[in-house]
Automatic annotation (TrEMBL):
Keyword vocabulary terms for this entry: Oxidoreductase
Keyword Oxidoreductase: yes
Domain (Fe-containing alcohol dehydrogenase-like C-terminal): residue spans on this chain: 192-388
Alphabetized CDD domains for the sequence: BDH (cd08187)
Coiled coil: none
EC numbers, comma separated: 1.1.1.-
Organism for this UniProt entry: Megamonas hypermegale
Record-annotated Alcohol dehydrogenase iron-type/glycerol dehydrogenase GldA domain positions: 9-179
Keyword set includes Oxidoreductase: yes
PANTHER family in UniProt: ALCOHOL DEHYDROGENASE YQHD
Protein name as annotated: NADH-dependent butanol dehydrogenase A
GO MF entries: alcohol dehydrogenase (NADP+) activity; butanol dehydrogenase (NAD+) activity; metal ion binding; methylglyoxal reductase (NADPH) (acetol producing) activity
InterPro entries named in the record: ADH_Fe/GldA, ADH_Fe_C, BDH-like
One cellular-component annotation, GO: cytosol
Length: 388
């Protein structure tokens, strides 16, 4: 096990009716003027937005709203949100939604502290982030894990880049997780969420470091749980047990605990972000599109690790290359059974031409200036071949 520091200060309030303590929590973290950030309207339709506004007003909090965050959230939306928040002296940002809404809220909270800068300057590290405004979330989709992660992902519509920013300032003050609030999410979003949750642990599971058993047990337990409960959740949109298991996994999978003591890889996320930036693809689907192609390209780097994963998750007894390939095929089939794409033509509806493949490779490697991942670092040719 390698050296690590783990600090996840987010207060997690999990379970039925947990959103009823939102006002108390905001006050606990010194919020007075609250900006509620939300997406395309699902929380209006379910009545959650009205319920929270009423609760906050009854607690004498000032409330303003900012709706319209789109999946794969945009930098321009954040910049406009910062302007609105500044004009209203906002001192607490409350996200109600999935990863896109939470990531937008994080960025607005940072932007409030840097009013003269374009938020992208922080994402590209031209401006060093050294402070933020308190923010918290009410989660409505188990997926990205942004509710406890140190990350936020934005798309710059001008440069066509989708980039994450990892910083301790991205850890929210609180995360309210009521599994019932996820019941209404579309089936495809739930499936994408399950894939993303698995992938956040898989991207940490394949690492260059060996001998890290406690972290392995946590990671394997989480992946087994997702594989067992994901189909049940998709079949039963009102089933509390499966929704709660997946929701807990979603947060745990990306708060770092499933990868402590080793380096992260995250190549598949890099590929996926380029597909999302170019084709506006849903995040989880972009990952299932690429995972098996990545795995088939790199498995020889650590055949035993792939076999071990297959044994743990699917009771695959074969060893050597046969075991590794069977593991990859079985996980790919699992994604397919969730209704998700497993190749680019399924994701985009077309076979990409040479120009598009080169464009994706250029974007992914920052014009051939860096390698991707740590498990088996990938150069320009590797990335191109995997996309192809
Ligand atoms: O916008 P609304 O109307 O709310 O609808 C959303 C949206 O259309 C809908 N939805 C969510 N909860 C619902 C619901 N509809 C009905 N009932 C509910 N209870 O679902 C759609 C997708 O929402 P979105 O927030 O985009 O999904 P997700 O949570 O998967 O977030 C994806 C974003 O997070 C980023 C992704 O790249 C992507 O931009 N990620 C963020 C990470 C982080 N901050 O740590 C890590 C991840 O790897 C990921 O990159
Ligand atoms: Zn992800």
């Amino acid at each position: 096990m390698q050296k690590f520091t783990f600090h996840c200060p987010t207060e997690v309030i999990f379970g039925k009716d947990s959103e009823n303590c939102t006002a108390d929590l905001i006050k606990k973290y010194n919020g007075h003027n609250v900006l509620i950030v939300f997406g395309g309207g699902s929380i209006k339709r379910t009545g959650l937005l009205d319920k929270i506004i009423t609760q906050l007003k009854e607690a004498s909090l000032f409330v303003s709203t900012l709706g319209g965050v789109q999946p794969n959230p945009l930098v321009s939306f954040v910049n406009n949100g910062v302007k609105k928040a500044l004009a209203q002296n906002i001192d607490f940002v409350l996200a109600i939604g999935g990863g896109s809404v939470i990531d937008t809220a994080k960025a607005i909270a940072h932007g409030l502290q840097y009013p003269t800068h374009d938020i992208w300057d922080i994402w590209t590290k031209k401006v060093k982030l050294e402070k933020t405004t308190p923010f918290g979330s009410i989660v409505t989709l188990a997926a990205a894990g942004s509710e406890t992660s140190d990350s936020s992902v934005l798309t710059n519509e001008q440069t066509k880049q989708k980039r994450g920013l990892s910083t301790p300032f991205n850890r929210p003050r609180f995360a309210i997780m009521n599994p019932e609030l996820t019941f209404t999410a579309p089936k495809v979003q739930k499936a994408c969420g399950c894939a993303d949750i698995l992938m956040h642990t898989l991207e940490r599971y394949f690492a260059k470091e060996q001998d890290n058993y406690m972290t392995d047990y946590i990671a394997e337990g989480l992946m087994k749980d997702v594989i067992y409960y994901a189909p049940k959740m998709l079949e039963n949109p009102q089933d509390y047990l499966s929704h709660s298991e997946i929701m807990y996994c979603g947060s745990l999978s990306h708060n770092d605990i499933t990868g402590l003591g080793r380096t992260k890889d995250f190549s598949v996320h890099k590929f996926g972000h380029e597909l999302s930036a170019k084709f506006d693809a849903t995040h989880g689907a972009s990952l299932t599109t690429m995972w098996a192609s990545w795995a088939r390209y790199v498995y020889k780097h650590d055949v035993e690790r792939f076999c071990h994963l297959g044994k743990v998750l699917f009771d695959i007894s074969e060893t050597g290359e046969d075991g590794a390939i069977k593991t990859i095929n079985t996980l790919e089939e699992f994604f397919y059974r969730l209704g998700l794409p497993i190749c680019i033509s399924q994701l985009t509806g077309k076979i990409l031409d040479e120009t598009e493949l080169k464009y994706l490779t250029d974007m992914c490697t920052d014009n051939n200036s860096k390698a991707i991942g740590t498990f088996n670092p990938l150069n320009y040719e590797d990335v191109y071949t995997i996309f192809k």
